[in-house]
Amino acid sequence: MGEEAPEEMSTTEETLIVVKPDGVRRGLVGEIIGRFERKGLVIRRLRMQTLSKPQAEEFYSVHKEKPFFGELVAFITSGPVVGVVLSGRDAVATVRRMVGATKSWEAASGTIRGDLGLGLTDNTIHASDSSESFEHEEAAFFGKAPG
After folding, report:
1. Residue 142: CB atoms within 10 Å
2. Among 17, 53, 82, 126, which has the minimal tally of Cβ within 10 Å of its Cβ?
3. Number of folded domains in the chain?
4. pLDDT tens, position by position, for the chain (147 residues)?
5. CATH number for the domain harbouring residue 63
6. Which residues are catalytic?
């Protein structure tokens, strides 16, 4: 007695998902966001926009030196995207599990990419991979918070 079970030690946190241009074009925004709501995550912020090239370069700056950086930027700026800040218990890990593997053909059935993704870049969704990534990506997507 006195020890908390692991599930009770989990914390509420925020994370970011971005429905990519292929997901928006295919009319999957409601389906994708609905999965997170049904899981119990709460929408804290939501915005549809077309990212500018500088915004996209900042958003994906962690990949700046990688050979696929230009392709990522070109794809994410190719049409409107929907960014959503979600809040909930262990939100980062929960969302990552729900999203599935980056390569859609490797993602498990039942995950968003496994069910809806078509490829590598056109995998319908981006999700922050850590609390630190969330802070950087939220600022790049929504703009720096005042103060």
Report:
1. 15
2. 53
3. 1
4. 455 455 556 789 999 999 999 999 999 999 999 999 999 999 999 999 999 999 999 999 999 999 999 999 999 999 999 999 999 999 999 999 999 999 999 999 999 999 999 998 899 999 999 999 999 999 999 987 544
5. 3.30.70.141
6. 126
